Structure formats: C-alpha cells, structure tokens
Amino acid sequence: MTKIVKVKKRNGDTEPFDPEKVKRSIEKAAIDAGYNLKGMGDLNLIDEVTKGIVEETREKNEIESTSIRKIILKQLENEESSIAKSWKKFEKRYELTR
What we know:
single chain; about 100 residues; mainly alpha; about 10% strand
C-alpha cells in the first residue's frame, strides 16, 4: 500500500503530493531558461530532481510546499544553475515568494 503524502500549501490548504506537478514546474523553468527538452540530458536532469523530491517525501506524512521548493532549488543550483535562476525569476515576476 502506498502512503499518500500531503503537501501543506502556504495558504494552509493541503493536497496530495503529485510528483508530476513538480516535474511540470521544473520543465517550465528549463524551457524558460532556454533548454530543449527533447535532449535526453535535460530530461534526465528533470527526472533526477523529481526523483529526489519523491525520495525526500517518502518518509513523511506531510511536507510544506516551501520545503519542496528549497529541495528543488538546491538540487537545481548544484546541477544546472540557469534553471534555478529561471525558477526564481518566475517567482519574483509573480511575487510567489515570501
């Protein structure tokens, strides 16, 4: 039986953890940073970062969305800083950080 991890959003709501949502967010940041996602290396990076988030949440019942963000950005900064910059630029543009 798979344990369902809950994600606590900034507004206090919770929702089930969805690794595909994380993957889509990283893909959007990669495209914005100028990456061609048809290249295997770019997709492998996104899969690895997504896999890291899944591993990190495996032992938890609940995780805050801000914690997921920190994990994603740390991994991206280590692997591909231009994607991390694109992510932060998007957040700043839409005032998504506090």
